[in-house]
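Hi R.,

Quick one: here's the SWIM-type domain-containing protein sequence you asked about.
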Amino acid sequence: MAVTALGDALYEVETDHDTSYLIDLRSCRCSCPDYVFRSVRCKHLRRVAIEITEGRTPPPGQLAVACAVCGEELFVPEADADRPQYCGTDALEPGAFVRDRETGDRLLVVAVSDRRADRTEVGRSAYSVATYPNNRSYDPADRVVGAVYPQSIEMTGSGPEPDALRVYSFPHARLERVSGTPA
Ligand SMILES: [Zn+2]
Ligand SMILES: [Zn+2]
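And here's the predicted structure, written out as tokens:
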């Protein structure tokens, strides 16, 4: 029996006989004949409970999505399921070195926000991070990552150049984690 979380505490159980039943975990109901006509706690309800307990199916309030980079299955809050999600390996954090998939440039991540690309303006331009040239093929709901060009952080005698730490905003998916230090 295959279990799929549909959101809103609803689950679909597909039986071996090509039949599907709908389970509402909030009210503990199933659409199968056993439950509907005999009011017994059917095997579908039990199966959903087992799958959740064993971590194979997301609990109510969460949905299963694929990591936007590697495809690994992740359980995330329902409200986040329509945005790109990243597994522990592919999620970026401040200090991560990355490669810009568009230009090949190496950058250093300095901030990872929860803001959507289509709701974040680029400086005083008319663009958002989502509509900025080179960013339009990425998901507008992707989160915004701030990064700097490490080679611009040239130290002068009195510290970094005044203009050195200019932070550029990118959709998360445009930056690919790389190992090591920038050239
Ligand atoms: Zn049932
Ligand atoms: Zn991943």
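The two ends are 52 Å apart (CA to CA).

Cheers,
M.
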